[in-house]
Specification:
By secondary structure, this protein is mainly alpha-helical. It is 67% helix and 6% strand. It has one domain: Up-down Bundle (Fumarate Reductase Cytochrome B subunit), CATH 1.20.950. The strands form two sheets. It has a two-stranded antiparallel sheet with strand order 1-3. The chain has a two-stranded parallel sheet with strand order 2-4. Helix 1 runs antiparallel to helix 3, helix 3 packs across helix 6 and helix 6 packs antiparallel against helix 8. The longest helix has 43 residues. The protein is elongated and about 75 Å long. The chain starts with a strand and ends with a strand. The relative contact order is 0.16. This is Cytochrome b/b6 domain-containing protein.
């Protein structure tokens, strides 16, 4: 590294842990989701589809817990863990964005303005995925946190909920079941389209990191492993 650069601690252990759990969970969810969406093409049986959906939901719980953890940290954390340092809503953001466009060599301790916009987009889409996914899990394979509510709503015999299984019509009132399916349609639409948007944004995010690294030369990638950036002493934007 250049002698005019200094080692600056930016990303806490909590942020790095969230990031890599999120990467692994999303990759697994994408792979399983693609197989589920193309079940007929891959020749997946009904039992196989239930198994895939079960695994998808379990990974989804990890994804959701991790995301909720990150959102909580944004309220109670320190410095670059907080909302003000990660989203494009701080006072003077427009000026910050203009400065970013004009000064190509400027390095940033936290996210640069383009990075903040990307974080906003990714967090928004992941939140949609989380909420819609939990509702779908409850209406499809009757998993928590909403599964018990939906099984109660569609059961003929409320005292015999254990027999209600995915893709089975036993103990199910057809009218109530159809009402549940109608209720879940917008959640499926939101889940699928936010999934497609994530498929578009994730490569864009990776390209953005590569471009930012070439532009700032501050060890952005390694910083997400060890927490440290290497920043020029005279050209640091503390945003």
């Amino acid at each position: 590294m250049n002698s005019k650069r200094e080692q600056v601690f930016v990303w806490s252990g909590k942020i790095r842990l969230f990031h890599w759990i999120n990467v692994i969970a999303i990759l697994l969810l994408i792979v399983i989701g693609v197989v589920i969406l193309n079940g007929k093409l891959f020749g997946v049986s009904t039992d196989g589809k239930v198994l895939l959906k079960t695994i998808h939901v379990i990974v989804g719980y990890v994804f959701s817990a991790n995301l909720i953890f990150r959102l909580i940290i944004a309220f109670i954390g320190k410095t670059y863990e907080r909302w003000g340092k990660m989203l494009p809503f701080n006072k003077g953001f427009i000026a910050e964005l203009i400065e970013f466009k004009q000064q190509k060599k400027l390095a940033y301790k936290g996210h640069n303005p383009a990075g903040k916009l990307m974080v906003l987009a990714l967090l928004s889409l992941m939140s949609v995925q989380m909420v819609s996914g939990l509702v779908i899990a409850g209406t499809d394979i009757y998993y928590p946190p909403f599964g018990n509510y939906f099984t109660q709503s569609i059961a003929i015999d409320k005292d015999n909920l254990a027999v209600i299984k995915p893709y089975s019509k036993e103990n199910i009132d057809e009218v109530s079941y159809q009402a549940m399916r109608d209720f879940r349609k917008p959640f499926i639409t939101a889940h699928v389209y936010s999934f497609y948007c994530l498929l578009f944004l994730i490569p864009l995010h990776i390209i953005g990191v590569i471009v930012a690294e070439r532009r700032e030369r501050s060890a952005i990638v390694s910083a997400m492993f060890n927490g440290y950036k290497y920043l020029p002493k005279d050209e640091i934007a503390d945003h």
